[in-house]
Automatic annotation (TrEMBL):
The lineage of its organism: Bacteria, Bacillati, Actinomycetota, Actinomycetes, Mycobacteriales. It comes from Mycobacteroides abscessus. This is Helix-turn-helix domain-containing protein. Residues 1-23 are annotated as: Disordered. Residues 8-62 form the HTH cro/C1-type domain. It comes from the Bacteria. GO terms for molecular function: DNA binding. Keywords: DNA-binding. Pfam families: HTH_3.
Length: 87
């Protein structure tokens, strides 16, 4: 998780975003983004997918092994929901 967290942190910084920006875009708290970036806590796959999607980051590109069907389905669903217009 540490390597993935560092990659997400680097992507966030390259995009010029703060942890709060990513939190707002992904619907999680700033503390959750911090935990993910530090790699110190195991993170729910759906939350991880939300944060990755907020950064335009494809989880399957950094996974050591292919994502499970359920994780990939959750990621794809979150990506679709994030593209839908919000009320």
């Amino acid at each position: 998780m540490k390597k993935l967290g560092m990659q997400l942190k680097n992507a966030r910084k390259q995009a010029g975003l703060t942890q709060q920006d990513v939190a707002s875009k992904s619907g999680v708290t700033r503390q959750t983004v911090s935990y993910i970036e530090s790699g110190q806590h195991r993170t729910d796959a759906v939350i991880l997918a939300q944060v990755a999607d907020a950064l335009g980051f494809r989880l399957s590109l950094v996974a050591k092994k292919p994502l499970s069907h359920d994780v990939q389905a959750a990621y794809d669903l979150m990506a679709q929901l994030n593209q839908s217009p919000r009320p």
